UniProtKB/TrEMBL annotation:
Residues 42-182 form the DTW domain. Belongs to the TDD superfamily. DTWD2 family. PANTHER family: TRNA-URIDINE AMINOCARBOXYPROPYLTRANSFERASE 2. Residues 1-25 are annotated as: Disordered. Residues 1-21 have a biased composition (Low complexity). The keyword tRNA-binding does not apply. It catalyses: a uridine in tRNA + S-adenosyl-L-methionine = a 3-[(3S)-3-amino-3-carboxypropyl]uridine in tRNA + S-methyl-5'-thioadenosine + H(+). This is tRNA-uridine aminocarboxypropyltransferase. Its EC number is 2.5.1.25. InterPro entries: DTW (IPR005636), DTWD2/TAPT (IPR039262). Keywords: S-adenosyl-L-methionine, Transferase, tRNA processing.
Length: 182
């Protein structure tokens, strides 16, 4: 009584790709290495604002860098560098190079960043970071009409908090906050 078909060949059904691969020793990977690989081509970026050239914002920037007396130190979390809405390059494009310094990282020790350490120890340096001890920036502006340096932490709230609390240097300058507009 051999009337029941047990395999796909015996039943007349066509063998599928999964079944065919299962029967091979190489697991069905033969020829995969010859498949063409598409190269990822990035859109051309503007060298000044770091935006794709099709949406370059440079025509909206000042022709010449703004004249400012205060130096900004932007402490940028590494994850912010690759975000789509990068605003730090926009700010840097509008200010003179010696007035806007961008440092990217999570940890900033005195030995690795001696210039930043000296800036943090300067009595006229301010750090923009909210907190119980932070003074209103508008009130501080009356006391320090032109602070020499303002340190700004660029990141999400949790990233900024991590940077602020894990770097003792950032607790040396006077802490200021911006009050909400009323």
């Amino acid at each position: 009584m051999e009337t029941a078909a047990t395999g796909s060949e015996e039943s007349g059904a066509a063998e599928g790709p999964v079944e065919a691969a299962a029967g091979r020793e190489d697991g069905g990977c033969e020829g995969l290495w010859e498949l063409p690989v598409e190269r990822c081509v990035r859109r051309a970026e503007c060298g000044r604002c770091s935006r794709p050239q099709k949406v370059c914002l440079c025509p909206f920037f000042p022709v010449h860098p703004l004249k400012v007396s205060t130096c900004l130190y932007i402490i940028q979390h590494p994850a912010e560098e690759s975000r789509v809405l990068r605003t730090v390059p926009l700010l840097a494009a509008c200010l003179p190079g010696d007035k806007c310094k961008v440092l990217i990282g999570r940890r900033f020790g005195e030995d690795r960043y001696p210039e930043l350490a000296a800036v943090c120890r300067n009595s006229s340096t301010l750090i923009l970071y909210p907190g119980a001890e932070a003074a209103n920036l508008e009130e501080v502006a009356l006391i320090f009409p032109s602070p020499s340096t303002i340190i700004i932490i660029d990141g999400t709230w949790s990233q900024a908090k991590d940077i602020f609390y894990k770097n003792s240097l950032f607790r040396l300058p006077k802490q200021v906050r911006c009050n909400a507009l009323t």
